[in-house]
Design brief:
This protein is α/β, with parallel strands linked by helices. It contains 14 helices and nine strands. The strands form three sheets. It has a five-stranded parallel beta sheet. It has a two-stranded antiparallel ribbon with strand order 3-4. The chain has a two-stranded antiparallel ribbon with strand order 6-7. Bound molecules: adenosine-5'-diphosphate and magnesium ion. Adenosine-5'-diphosphate binds next to helix 5, helix 10 and helix 12.
Length: 301
């Protein structure tokens, strides 16, 4: 079944064989681990986006998905987890992520006979490495300076990390792979540390546009009206160009917000939907006005 999904992407035969070998490799997944396998649902503007990411992962390389917010990076990572049938452990660097959140922490447990003991609860990095699963590192450019050495070890060809909480050196098992994402938009994003960037193959994830976007909006939102869907596609095009010019903030062009607007527009006037789902999220009054002006040219009240 997944073989036919793989066939949708222009993959070299050797790469396909590697992926199928990974499927065949005996894997005893618990029910919880099975739940960590992503689902398909990413639509590619260009099938090479998926093919190149699959190829890099099959060759044991780290993949960095680079694109503006809401362009489908997380969705693409889930598709990759699905295509490889590999559970994916996720970490988000934008929250206060420290060594414990990555590697794990100690808790007080009990041995069942009334004695307390210290248990170690493994974190996502340790779990993914030891079990040979995928690790998804979201917003890796936001990682704190004190977690960078851990990430460097994870991404390094040696694939080892020292866990200070257990005094153990964790070595990655076969199958371990890293997918990271960075919100590299048009303006004002924190650049990725050079040492980290060096360790990745970079895949650009652009916003979906045109007919592909229309199909996505129809599939993922409540809005089914053909004329309105066309106008929302035009709205997206105009918003992306404004974001590119720096006239509105990045979030204004996000497909996530666009989907919200389409959902609402199935039940209220499109202009109100756009105000609620897109314009009013922006902090700057001029940016809100710019979004509404574009919307008014496309939709009549
Ligand atoms: N190319 C795409 N294929 C499928 N869904 C997409 C795509 N682009 C955006 N989306 C939709 O937009 C939402 C945001 O996508 P997400 O993967 O979370 O973006 P990112 O991680 O880049 O911020 C998703 O929930 C999905 O519904
Ligand atoms: Mg994301």
């Amino acid at each position: 079944m997944i073989e036919s999904e793989l066939a949708r992407y222009p993959l070299a035969d050797r790469v396909k064989r590697i992926v199928l070998d990974i499927h065949r490799r005996e894997k005893q997944l618990s029910d919880d681990e099975r739940l960590l396998i992503g689902s398909p649902g990413y639509t590619a503007s260009d099938p090479n986006v998926v093919a190149d990411a699959v190829t890099a992962l099959a060759l044991g390389k780290n993949v960095l998905l680079k694109g503006p917010t809401g362009s489908g990076k997380t969705k693409l990572a889930e598709l990759l987890s699905h295509l490889f049938q590999q559970p994916m452990h996720m970490i988000n660097c934008s929250v206060d992520l420290d060594a414990e959140a990555l590697l794990g922490h100690k808790t007080l447990g009990s041995d069942g006979e009334g004695h307390s003991r210290i248990d170690f609860v493994p974190g996502p990095v340790e779990k993914a490495m030891k079990r040979g699963h995928f690790l998804y590192i979201d917003e890796i450019n936001m990682a704190r300076a004190d977690t960078l050495p851990i990430l460097n070890g994870v991404l390094d060809y040696r694939r080892t990390v020292h866990n200070p909480f257990t005094a153990e050196t964790v070595r990655a098992s076969e199958g371990f792979a890293v997918i990271a994402a960075i919100n590299e938009g048009y303006i004002g994003t924190t650049p990725l540390n050079e040492a980290l960037k060096n360790r990745f193959v970079v895949i650009d994830v652009p916003y979906l546009q045109g007919d592909a976007l229309k199909a996505l909006l129809r599939r993922q939102s409540s809005l089914q009206d053909d004329v309105l869907l066309d106008r929302f596609v035009a709205l997206s095009r105009d918003l992306i160009s404004k974001a590119r010019d720096g006239q509105i903030a990045e979030e204004g062009a996000s497909i996530r917000s666009l989907l919200d607007a389409c959902d609402l527009a199935a039940f209220m006037s499109p202009l109100r939907a756009i105000r609620r789902a897109i314009a009013d999220k922006l902090d700057d009054e001029r940016e809100r006005a710019a979004v509404l002006t574009i919307a008014e040219t496309l939709f009549d009240s």
